């Protein structure tokens, strides 16, 4: 009778030991991730109080920008609803930005030089580049940002240039998307370490 070598490993206990070790490692990893999540939730709720003060300001600003724009082509009651929805969307985006700012990697602690992370090595190489190269990379970043914004606002841009009478609606969509992107980025930028 031809026996499989897998049977030898199972009967010898090697398989059970490896399985037990893997399960133990997975449990330990899940516990570490759970502790990180709890710590991040605490930072989200308590440590970023100054960011929570920006939430009503962002919502009010978006309402004050979107409501008058929509009163041009809609009755006031419908414009109020559209302005309120815009305020809600921007407030939700601000909350997402606060959650993004609670990432431990954005903490104001110095990065250890022994960190062998690929991202930290790339950042260190960027710091060592010349002024011209940094300007070119900055220009490329701005160009890519404008291209991404054009891709995000493509339906509104098409509406703006193709259909008559839809100018206000298209401008409202573009403005709302710009406000939403800014609301996500601002909390992260406010808590990012200054270099």
List key phrases describing it.
195 residues, mainly alpha, 8 helices, extended
Distance between the termini: 71 Å
Number of strands: 0
Shape: extended
**Approximately what portion of the residues adopt beta-strand conformation?**
under 5%
Count of helices? 8
N-to-C series of helices and strands: HHHHHHHH
What does this structure look like?
This protein is 81% helix and 0% strand. The chain has eight helices and no strands. It is extended. Helix 3 runs antiparallel to helix 4, helix 3 (49-70) packs antiparallel against helix 8 and helix 4 (76-101) packs parallel to helix 8 (167-191). The protein is an all-alpha fold and 195 residues long. The chain has helices spanning 5-12, 14-47, 49-70, 76-101, 118-128, 131-152, 154-162, 167-191.
